[in-house]
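Please, structure for the following, as tokens.
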Amino acid sequence: MANREIAGRSGSFHASLALLAAASIAMGLLAAACSALGGGPSGSQAATPPAGFPVGSWTTSISREDLSAGGLEGDLIDQNEGDFVLTFEADGTFQQVQTSTIGVTLREPIFRGHYTVTGDEVRLDPEFPVHYAQEGVYDVVRWQLDGDVLHLSLASHGDPIQVVVYGAHPWRRAAASGLVGTWQATVTREDLQRGGVADPGLLNENAGRFTRGFAAGGTWTMAQESLDGSPIRNPVFRGSYAVEGNEIAVHVDFPTEYQGDERYGWAVDGSELRLTLVEPADDVLNRLVTESHPWTRTSP
């Protein structure tokens, strides 16, 4: 999948297949792998992959130099560099997540869809973003597994971006993170008031039981439940993330009015997760929800 703007297109199956490794999805599975300039049939629906296919999450990193060597320039370099996680699920679906390493706001950091394996080739048909499916975009990628290293190369349908993302470097199996799983914390009105929040509407909107889920493929969700039946305008948030040492780089995709990048410190101690807001440092409400209490693991 790749964020491309070639031949009048606004984007393409981001070259993140180079993530086929995990890179956003996963994912960030993320610069691109499924956009096909030549169009083509929409492909078959998701099916169980054959034995030996590299189900799981794979990661790779694409540099500005990699893209420049592939003949790309300008915005196409900015939108397609970064860390990618490409995840192949056992049910025949995939996700690619991309995380910029230069602080660029990515137009399409997540791709999702289904894949079909034929011998040493895998066809990726994106279903999200939806315009790729509507355009009949897909990629056909040749794969070869060598232990925990996955070699990918564009076989057909694609463009110079996919050539780089898939083939510039081998994809490596993503290590499981202690962050993956579901975590819960309860934030009360009193917690918010101690932090200086007095507005009744803000108290209603930001108090509650919060459940955060970090998936192995590089996506996250957070759901909020009111403790007293007060209406909550935005009870669900979701997006992509990448673990960078003791920090988490988070991108919010939904709700759209909150789209943007955030960064958190994290540490796991047994069944507790402690999060600290790093950026944006001046977001008082986010800090109170994030830091008022440790988060308790509710599922692996």
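The longest strand covers residues 260-269. The helical segments are 64-69, 75-80, 130-135, 160-167, 189-194, 200-206, 284-291.
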